[in-house]
Input
Amino acid sequence: MSSQIKLGAPLPFNVRDEHGHLLLAAAQVIHSERMLEALLARGIHADVEEIKALAAGRKVQPQQPTLFARWGRCYWGLDALARDPLPPEEFRNALTELGDGLQSLVEQQPDVAIYLMLRQDAHPLRMYGLTHATYAAALAWMLARRLQWSEAQQRSVLMAALTMNLACLDLQARFAVYGRLSQEQRDELRTHPDTAVARLRAAGIDDEDWLRAVTEHHEHTDGKGYPRGLQQVGEMAQLLRLVDVFLAKISRRESRPSLDLREAERQAYAEYPSSPLVTALIRELGPLPPGEVVVLANGERGVVIRRGAAPQTPLVATLTDKRGIPCQTSLRRDTAERDFAFKALEPDRQLVARLPPERLYGLLP
Output
């Protein structure tokens, strides 16, 4: 079946994972080796009836993407933009469409966005640059909204986060996988903000807030940032740096595990003790954000899937029963109820790796 998938050609069938979750719809195009490798690594499947239809010479109709497949479109849309030398107008249109799609996803389902940020285990490390930029954009937009920035500023920071690493996605993936870069690659990494801005300007992007944030997103007010060692850094760039560093710390690498969420928050606060940006980050996530693995009062283990009316009362999807036996069917538990109250954090975060988010969120049986 995988032999029928060709680079640069429309998919002949709807591509699914082993749980039946739609990854890519029929007629979508595989743009890159990275995209193809990620699909093969995850495991690709097709509906038997669709294969029969193809064998009979009939065209397979593309299915509407699920919520999580729409997130996948964001990753691969960014991949295509970074690789394809589109004319300026086409580039701007594609980038606008990508930003619109991502903003809509986060606005409609912010808890799912947080879940994906915290539960990145399912993604191959070669996708790190794509997922990191997508989640950074989502988190930056959420924090800007919490800070009550104008809608124009919220949009600018989302687009800046989405494009800040446009020139180094491959380098980020390489570093995530191998944990090292050559000196030449390190030099390239140090200039990636300017390279990204040059490409954006060449495409006709003229939002100076957006462009300045990309230019300065690795600068630091102590003058030790790069590429210019600035001490006067715009607030939007500071927000980008915060989400960039924070998400990098809670993401695994081949050379190290992900940092604990609370430790990452503590480090952010230690670096910027009076920053309203850090305060917004901590308040947005809350003490028990989606993606956190917990123990309930009745002994069940579960993962938070939605924030509750109060910080300590989220909605949880069960992973094990009270005896520790993995659940065949994940049940919803409202921790505002006494029997299902939050008891403790579960140290074994790998419990959640068994179940796809589609099942936890009730999109699959």
The mean pLDDT is 89. Residues 2-65 form one domain. The chain has 15 helices and seven strands. The chain has three domains: 2-65, 69-285, 293-360.
